[in-house]
Amino acid sequence: GAVVSQHPSRVICKSGTSVKIECRSLDFQATTMFWYRQFPKQSLMLMATSNEGSKATYEQGVEKDKFLINHASLTLSTLTVTSAHPEDSSFYICSARVVNVVNQPQHFGDGTRLSIL
Amino acid sequence: GQQLNQSPQSMFIQEGEDVSMNCTSSSIFNTWLWYKQDPGEGPVLLIALYKAGELTSNGRLTAQFGITRKDSFLNISASIPSDVGIYFCAGQQGAQKLVFGQGTRLTINP
């Protein structure tokens, strides 16, 4: 089945550091990738939709200059949390799907646990 | 943002019991998806439903796409310890973004 790989799985860093998270589709071309944030005991909250070769679409309330998204190829999207602060600590999950093919569900990566000290 | 109504929020059952959870929406969807999330991991797709009225099974799991397109249920038969986790429903209309339920946390007493 479709596999989405996310790296790293866990990051612990100091406040002010920028952190890059990678999301790769391993056996399919993902024209669209999605970045979610999940707080403890809550559902997934969509942050942005990443389209290959174009600018990402951010959800309301998500700072595009804070969370930089790049989708340079059909198999890779990156999320960079710039100048991270403790309030950015969370579980970040990416997802990918092939948009122009009928009945293709979204598959998720294993998530990245970000802890800012 | 928009969210599905998923119930129950949590379940505490004995091993071997059957489980049933459902999601309802005020909006129509043409796709319903059910995911399971284990602690510290991303959601894993369990069942995808694409047609109103569709009933689909995956091992001990059965899910149905409601005929009104506004609801779906997931049943788990003869629960086992590895069924523990959080189950999420998600609805989708066309190529639009997924809308998630709040999740059902399943706990199994041995």
Descriptive notes:
The complex is a heterodimer of chains A (117) and B (110). With 117 residues, chain A is mainly β. Chain A is built from no helices and 11 strands. In chain A, the strands form 2 sheets. In chain A, strands 2, 4, 5, 6, 9, 10 and 11 form a 7-stranded mixed beta sheet that branches. The model of chain A has no long low-confidence stretch (mean pLDDT 91). With 110 residues, chain B is mainly beta. Helices cover 0% and strands 53% of the residues of chain B. Chain B has strands at 5-7, 10-14, 19-24, 31-37, 44-49, 55-58, 61-65, 71-76, 85-92, 99-100, 104-109. In chain B, the strands form 2 sheets. In chain B, strands 2, 4, 5, 9, 10 and 11 form a 6-stranded mixed beta sheet that branches. A 5-stranded antiparallel beta sheet of chain B has the order 1-3-8-7-6, with no helix packed on it. Chain B is globular and about 40 Å long. The mean pLDDT of chain B is 94. The chains are: A mainly beta (117), B mainly beta (110). The interface between A and B is medium-sized, with 24 and 23 residues.
Specify the oligomeric state.
Answer: heterodimer
Q: What's the total number of strands of chain A?
A: 11
Catalogue the unreliable spans of chain B. Answer: none
Contiguous helical run count of chain A: 0
The tally of beta strands of chain B, per DSSP, is 11
Fraction in helix of chain A:
under 10%
Q: In one word, what is the shape of chain A?
A: globular
One letter per element, helices H and strands E, the order of chain B comes to EEEEEEEEEEE
The chain pair with the largest interface is: A-B, 24 and 23 residues
Number of helices of chain B: 0
Strand content of chain B: over 45%
Helical amount among residues of chain B, as a percent range? under 10%
Counting helices, strands and paired strands, the structural category of chain B is mainly beta
Structural class of chain A: mainly beta
Rg of chain A, rounded, reads 14 Å
Shape of chain B from CA axes?
globular
Biggest β-sheet description of chain B: 6 strands, mixed
Q: Describe the biggest sheet of chain A?
A: 7 strands, mixed
